[in-house]
């Protein structure tokens, strides 16, 4: 078989069914859902810096409260 024959045979065998863009849309939807889930995880760590002892002490002093620590600097 020559290269031209193989190419012609391969061209005859290829068939496209439906819209390729619509068939691959699910990959974009899956990626969007994953990024939204990761965004929610990132958002859940919001305001964690205020749990540190120095900031907690400053907040307690500003509010006029006593602060008791539990040993590791967090309350």
From TrEMBL:
Q: Out of the domains of life, which is the source?
A: Bacteria
Membrane spanning stretches: 25-45
Which keywords has UniProt assigned to this entry? Membrane, Transmembrane, Transmembrane helix
User: What is the protein name for this chain?
Assistant: 4-hydroxybenzoate polyprenyltransferase
Q: Which organism is it from?
A: Microbacterium thalli
